UniProtKB/TrEMBL annotation:
Catalyzes the NADPH-dependent reduction of glutamyl-tRNA(Glu) to glutamate 1-semialdehyde (GSA). NADP(+) binds at G184, A185, G186, E187, M188, G189. It catalyses: (S)-4-amino-5-oxopentanoate + tRNA(Glu) + NADP(+) = L-glutamyl-tRNA(Glu) + NADPH + H(+). Belongs to the glutamyl-tRNA reductase family. It holds the Pfam family Shikimate_DH. The keyword Acetylation does not apply. Possesses an unusual extended V-shaped dimeric structure with each monomer consisting of three distinct domains arranged along a curved 'spinal' alpha-helix. The N-terminal catalytic domain specifically recognizes the glutamate moiety of the substrate. The second domain is the NADPH-binding domain, and the third C-terminal domain is responsible for dimerization. Residues 410-430 are annotated as: Disordered. During catalysis, the active site Cys acts as a nucleophile attacking the alpha-carbonyl group of tRNA-bound glutamate with the formation of a thioester intermediate between enzyme and glutamate, and the concomitant release of tRNA(Glu). The thioester intermediate is finally reduced by direct hydride transfer from NADPH, to form the product GSA. The gene is hemA. This is Glutamyl-tRNA reductase. Residues 412-430 have a biased composition (Acidic residues).
Amino acid sequence: MTTATGVISGVSVSHRRANVETIEAAGVRDERAAVEALLDREDVCEAFVVETCNRVEAYVVTDDPDRGRAIVASVVEDVPDEAVIDLGHEESLRHLMRVACGLESIVLGEDQILGQLRDAYATARTAGGIGRLFETGIEKALHVGERARAETAINEGVVSLGSAAAELATNEAELANATALVVGAGEMGTLVATALAESVDELLIANRTAANAEHVASTVDVEATALTLDGVAAAVDAADVVVSATGSPDPVFERTMFEAVGETLVVDLAQPRDVPPSAGNRPDVTVCDLDALESVTDETHERRREAAARVETLIDDEFDRLLARYKRQRADEVIGTMYAGAERMKERELARAVSKLETDGLTDDQHAVVESFADTLVNQLLAAPTRSLRDAAEADDWSTINTALQLFDPTFDGDEPADEDELAADEPASEMERAFAAAVYDELDD
């Protein structure tokens, strides 16, 4: 596991600055493979990647921030500069909190992003990309996202892209007595199907795996039929509304599927897109992509503005706690180094002292008292430096911490004897050894 002394560098390409085509171009397709590729880069000790339908983000931990920025920049090198948001260490941490809370989503406060972020975290951990920095930072972001939804009204109303797509369909088409085709039986497709079931007369659910389509069809409160992707072409002919939300890397629909259909509304939620943009060239076919959903969510944004302000305050508080925790971790590393060095020296000097005391004979109980005394002495001597180091970390006094690292050099083992025979040698005792022995005898007499 890495230390807490690295620096996070990140990049984000999202709907904030990029359109659907740009986000699609930045897509990493496979989060785990992307994390592993970042870890293969020299100097990267942690890596995290998250990709959703409206964002692609990559983060690394390096000791050198310039090196980190160069590495994440290579992930989006084919994306126009104006579409990329560069994120430094603290900016990355705050941004991940905002993402988890839904403040960076098309649908303000949407719930789905929290699960997507959690899945990306699990994927990065499996790939070996999660060390102490990301473990602390991402888990804090997930915690803040959960608090935002439990303690504010940020997710009331339209809460996902799926429900926003259903609302768009309601606004753009007459759904009474309509047949709707939903392609994709994952989380997004299930949300769309559930929302559309309240308005349409019939649902067709298509998925690569028939069993998943059948499961979704069995959960909606409307007549529903499950299909495989082989049945999509025929289903398009029968549908008035088509909503596609698959994770396929290739288009699911061919342009020719829409050449002979009647008036049809198509909503493409996939990233990359499932529907060729040219399908919208037909006069009776309207194709809406993720960019079109922003207008649908304006009303939701207005209703949630007050809740968003409360979430921002929550983020500020939790962000300060996170930084304080990182500071404590850095101080604790120095403190651990300090105690490790003291422990080595204590063991050596204890062995020397005991070897001299044993000439007078030590019982097991007396030996235990000597060891306890040595432990207590070390702890009392280091108690004040420990408090000072933690105070220095809280105050961002890194010069004090660096000085402590030099004073308590973990590679320094003191003046070790040449061999074990020296421990038992009957050479004259030093002033320190005589003082230590006297203190031990006092302890034993008590």
